[in-house]
Amino acid sequence: MARGSRVLSLGLCAALLSACAIGPDYQRPEVAEPAQYKQAEGWRQANPSDALARGAWWQLYGDAQLNDLVDKLNNANQSVAQSEAQFRQAQALVRSSRGAFFPSVDLSAGKTRASQGTGSSSSALSSSSSGIRDTYNTQLGVSWEADVWGKLRRGLEANEASAEASFADLAAMRLSQQSELVQNYLQLRVIDEQKRLLEATVVAYQRSLTMTQNQYQAGVAGKDAVAQAQTQLKSTQADLIDLIWQRAQFENAIAVLIGVPPAAFNLAEAKSVPVLPQVPLGVPSQLLERRPDIASAERAMIAANANIGVAKAAYYPDLTLSMAGGYSSSTYANWITLPNRFWSVGPKLAMTLFDGGQRSAEVDRTVAAYDQTVAKYRQTVLDGFREVENYMAQLKVMDDEAGVRQQALDSAREALRLTENQYKAGLIGYLDVVTSQTTALSNERSVLSLLQSRLIASVQLIAALGGGWDGQLQVSEQK
Fold first, then answer.
1. Signal peptide span per the entry (predicted)?
2. CA–CA separation, 23 and 153 (whole Å)
3. 3-state secondary structure at position 197
4. For position 400, what pLDDT does the model report?
5. Is residue 54 helix, strand or coil?
6. Distance between CA 164 and CA 90 in Å, rounded?
């Protein structure tokens, strides 16, 4: 009873001491956070759409087929599957760390056959079996490591932070793959629009060639006009053919992103280009909550900070409470009997007295690793703000450019109309018509190229903002 009381008292003392933990508690480092976005002034802000599912930012483009493709990506993308498997590994490490707080129970049973020399060679010669004995053992043991200095708790803290970082990495990978798919899809749809434009242009140029050939046969136009009309027609047909391989590349990229072989995937042409959305913008501080790469960088800091405590706890002794009991006998017949029982109970303190500076070096390493994660976190934040500012500036400038290019296109169309009327009236030569047609087509394609750039920049801005409009986006999207 007295021994049991002392063991119990020792266990209670260990539990009380375990309320403290060696090592620094985590505090988020300061970062340079602007009060507002520099490029937000004058930006056409839109309020978050209540009808939009939280996290489904691709629905801003109003394309049902795009929504379906993103759903397939979320379920079958192999890069996302890799990150998801890594996250499950991190979760398993957390469960393993939690298990270290509980006692471990071991059961063993076995038989040993041993011999010991008698010290006399003559005795050994007289009987080869002298000194050989069998022993049967059965033992149940319980041991528990008291987390006196917080080493186990710091280890759990580090693994939990690593799991949260892995979860953020999963969200970042999913966002990256979604962004890539949406960009490929939008570029493919712009190519479809360019194809329709060139097909209509080929029809118009074919009419012009036919009209010019008729005029040449009537002696009204020269052979040079026919050659110019035919050159223009064939060049446009070549441009139309060139779009085929460009479209195939985007189609194949989409197939891989949704986890199917390119040969088994076809995307029919659409009759319109998805709409260019107005992206709701938040304050800079929300960027720190929304972007999964920033969240991952911060969780890495938490894990590195906890590892400092684990390293420092190595300077202190480990306290283990153990208890064992069982049966031991030299014969199998009366193995499990009361006279053959044995038991042991007691605490054990163990610590390293000298290791040649290994523990000190490990503490220095963990401190340096933490400093590295702090620098990486701050750089990730700065890169995030830079990306948002860049894409906002790009969209703002392109918005102004789109208005000017539309005016240029309207003027080119009007000039072409007037030129064709003058040519039909015999007032000008066909070369003037060719020049006007080339200018009009160039402006048509420039407007489409600009629309493509604006659509891509909008996707990049959404991804730079974290793929949503509130801090709970990534969590709600995954769970």
1. 1-23
2. 11
3. helix
4. 93
5. coil
6. 8
Cβ density class 339-362: b for 16+ within 10 Å, e for less: ebeeeeeeeeeeeeeeeeeeeeeb
Burial degree of 68 (CB within 10 A; 0-12, 13-18, 19+): exposed
pTM for the structure as a whole: 0.82
> How far, in Å, CA of 309 to CA of 320, rounded?
19
Residue 54 is predicted with a pLDDT of 47
Q: Detail the DSSP E strand segments found in 57-127.
A: 104-115
Structure tokens at 393: 């500036």
Average pLDDT, the chain: 84
Residue entry with tokens 């043991």? 141
CA distance 432 to 421: 11
Least confident of 118-132, 297-311, 443-457: 118-132
Distance CA 254, CA 69 (A): 8
Average pLDDT over residues 82-106: 93
Q: What is the CA radius of gyration of the chain?
A: 38
Task: Enter the DSSP assignment of 139.
Answer: E
pLDDT for the residue 175: 93
| Backbone φ/ψ region at 55: left (φ over 0), alpha (ψ -120 to 50), beta | left
Helix (H) or strand (E) holding 325: strand 318-329
- Give mean pLDDT, residues 5-13: 49
Whether residue 280 contacts residue 48, with contact meaning beta carbons closer than 8 Å, is answered with yes
Give the amino acid at 80: V
Residue matched to tokens 């063993």: 108
Tell the burial category of 462 from Cβ atoms under 10 Å away from its Cβ (0-12, 13-18, 19+): buried
pLDDT at 19: 53
Check whether 245 has a pLDDT greater than 90: yes
**Where is mean pLDDT largest: 139-143, 183-187, 204-208, 331-335?**
183-187
Q: How many residues does the chain have?
A: 479
Coil/strand/helix, residue 142: strand
**Tokens at residue 169, please?**
């990495």
Q: What is the average pLDDT across 102-113?
A: 91
Mean pLDDT of 455-470: 84
- Provide the b/e sequence for 17-40 (b: ≥16 CB within 10 Å): ebeebbbeebeeeebeeeeebebb
Report the C-alpha gap between 6 and 143 in whole angstroms: 17
C-alpha distances out from residue 174 to 185, 258, 280, 320, 432, Å:
16, 12, 21, 44, 53
The sheet carrying 132-146 orders its strands as 104-115, 132-146, 318-329, 341-350
